[in-house]
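Q: Choice-of-anchor B family protein, please. Structure only.
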Amino acid sequence: MKRLLPLLAVLLSAITFAQTPCQNGNAGPYPCNGLDLQSRIGLNVFGTDRGNDSWGWTDPQDGKEYALMGLGNGTAFVDITDPVNPIYLGKLPTHTDPSTWRDIKVYNNYAFIVSEASGHGIQVFDLTRLRNVSNAPETFTEDAHYNGFGHCHNLVINEETGYAYGVGTSSFSGGPHFVNIQDPLNPVAAGGFSGDNYCHDAQVVIYNGPDTDYTGREIFFGSNEDRVSIVDVTNKSNPIGISNGFYSSVDYTHQGWLTEDQRYFIIGDELDESAFGFNTRTIIFDVTDLDNPVVHFEYEADNEAIDHNGYVKGDEFYLASYRAGLRVFDISNIGGEEMVETKFFDTYPNNNSTNFDGAWSVYPYFASGNIVISDIDRGLFIVRDSSLGVNENATSNFAIYPNPAKDIVNITSKTELINQVEIFNMLGQKVLDLSFDQNLSENVDVSNLQAGMYVMKVNASTTKRLLID
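A: Structure for Choice-of-anchor B family protein:
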């Protein structure tokens, strides 16, 4: 019990705003639509005066979920497995000086952290250490360090190949700096690309899109201040520039993300709202032909806030939009030149003007449906789609067993008839969708699922974690 007391004290002191459903357009003081507030942790808890980027990690051993939040003076690690009662586990201080900019990505259970601070390089942190924190919040030390560059605006990781790409460094004219991180504790320089000058942010994928000329190649999609830069980085010693994409009224090409079919690249220009008077503008490139990217259409929102970081998950686009908070769009008809805002959670309730406050980034990839928003001024928010219903920690009408399971999972209820069971993997992708004839007990065959952690959703309302052996 004594070991639990420090954790309990931190847990209780950290939650500066607890679970609040979105009702009549608000969750407490925060304007919202379709997203419930689970909890918020203020910056004072983290011992800093500003926040920035965020990412997430799911422990493959037990399915626990962790938010990783960049701070002015380091990186915070928070156990959000119970999103209503998050636990601040500790902070990794900055390698050199504080900075407004810090970026975090994850590969093979390690966090890789960069900053614009001079001489910072890449900090490498073993995330499995979070399993054994007994005296939270701890002050962590890095497990390894890469000094092949100093300051770095952002870091991109292709988890399929084990390569990291530092962008906005003083090397390669600010273009991508390649680092082999296949052995996470021994990162090795692997070249770079300077053909398109400074790169601010990027996404790198093993290409499986419609342009068969590049199938299976490792392709870099860069947001390079005044253009989209597409580069073949398969051969690290000989990267090849493929093409540039340009659009009108450009001011600062900031960040972009591919649709899951790799047919469209959705980008934001960080300064066009203030420079040209647009409402929040999103530019959608058609990259069906990688040699000739063209603007497919532009979307303009109903508010004037500046867009920042956006990510695609399935048919939804999650955009951290500074003073307008998190905005979620249905992009299922993006081919028909349509984006529809369906949900939002405004972490900056004062106004939606064109200023650099509010939501910096969002991480929507937890299988549980928990969504992390990192806010410059107000800290870490955990929100959740209102349609997901109660948390699995709450009282539920359903029981599932065995759990862990190998072949068959039995679902039982004393009162509510079972009509649908959906199972999602850790990337939030639906891997099983079954309909039933309204019984109180059903068996679900999971023998074709790979071992790992999943989320089971019953009757489109109740979620349960499921471990497959």
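A: Brief note, in case it's useful. The chain has a mean pLDDT of 92.
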